[in-house]
Design goal:
Trna Endonuclease, Chain: A, domain 1; 49% helix; disordered C terminus; 5 strands; five-stranded mixed β-sheet; alpha/beta
Length: 212
């Protein structure tokens, strides 16, 4: 009787060991599967980031070889491409800072000041102040934005934040042109955007941006 009891205890013990081993093995497999899934997600994210960077780098190049009038025309073209049929260039002497005007797809009046600047020429506070004084009172803008191939000084960013002016620098423009970033009117009128200073290309000429 005792022998039978010992055998039963031994069998139960072996079964418990096997059961625990199976549980640990299943947990290990689940952990490995989760790690593989995380690695696949990370790889896909890095691939997507590389694709976005390549698209933006290619899309922004034409803007770096435009002169100021061509840059204004290119911005009007981007607005028409993205659903602003009434987009036109107004940039001329006495335009009071309004280089491009348009009506957004949701019916707002959009006024753009275009700053075709090169490396080392930042859009500063006084630049924005000239535009800030006319954007709403004279041009009746619902959305006021400054778009540049350069960047913005801290003073310009502070002025824009205080006066609801959307700032689009080189990186933001690249995303917009490549269709993997928002247009300026998506950032307004709730709060303006500020972006890190990008590297710049030399100034040159080009007739218009290359459509993606």
């Amino acid at each position: 009787m005792i022998s039978v009891l010992l055998v039963m205890i031994l069998v139960a013990g072996v079964g418990l060991i096997i059961w625990r081993s199976n549980i640990r093995g299943e947990r290990w497999r689940q952990l490995q599967e989760a790690r593989r899934h995380e690695a696949e997600i990370a790889t896909a994210a890095r691939r997507r980031e590389a694709e976005i960077y390549a698209a933006r780098t290619s899309a922004i190049e034409p803007y770096h070889i435009m002169n100021a009038p061509e840059f204004e025309t290119a911005l009007a073209w981007l607005r028409q491409r993205d659903g602003c049929p009434e987009a036109y260039v107004t940039g001329k002497a006495g335009d009071l800072g309004a280089d491009v005007k348009a009506v957004t797809p949701d019916g707002r009046i959009l006024v753009i000041q275009a700053k075709r600047y090169v490396k080392g020429s930042m859009v500063n506070g006084p630049d924005l102040q000239k535009f800030g004084g006319t954007r709403y009172t004279v041009h009746r803008a619902d959305v006021a934005a400054v778009v540049t191939t350069s960047g913005f000084t801290r003073q310009a960013q502070e002025y824009a934040a205080a006066h609801r002016i959307v700032l689009f620098d080189n990186d933001a423009l690249a995303g917009w042109a490549a269709r993997n970033g928002p247009p300026p009117w998506f950032a307004a009128p709730l709060s303006p955007h500020s972006f890190p200073l990008p590297e710049q290309a030399p100034r040159g000429r080009h007739s218009r941006p290359v459509p993606p």
